[in-house]
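Model it.
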Amino acid sequence: MSSWTFWNWLAYSGLFVSAIVIAVREKGKDMTSPTWFPKFVTRINWSYVPLLLILLSTGIFLSQELGWVGSTTKVENQTKYIKWPDPYNPVPVINKTFTNEQVILDGHSYQHCTFTNVTFVYNGTTPFQFSNNNIYGLVNMKSDNPSVTATFELMDAFLGEYLPSSYKLILPPGAIHERIKRAP
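Modeled.
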């Protein structure tokens, strides 16, 4: 409940108030039922059932918040996948030359460009497009997104021997990375 928004509380309050209103309104009515109903069903005062259910759910919510019910450990870093925009409208970059600079890939469409000694930065927030480009010199790959960096490391570890010698992976400080060596 600590992460509830105003609308969550408003909806819950509405249910609670409606249950109270139903219980108060139905209290004065006589409940008649067919003779074929089981006796335990006719003895229950059904007008209070909605209120009891709301009180029960409130107790469950509070118990979860206080840690009495459910998991004792909270998952702090749940995986959340980024949903790419639909429709995708990349920024067109046409006939441009990039030299000794960082080039952001996310959300761009590079066409007929020249890249010399660049660092490509990809954070995985949107797709990118590459069409009819020329790449010269050193190529560095970098990301500020740990998931993308881990993917780069995985690809480099398994496929590094097939990558050109001009390719370099830029890792965050403290990262340990070694290419996998294939058995002869």
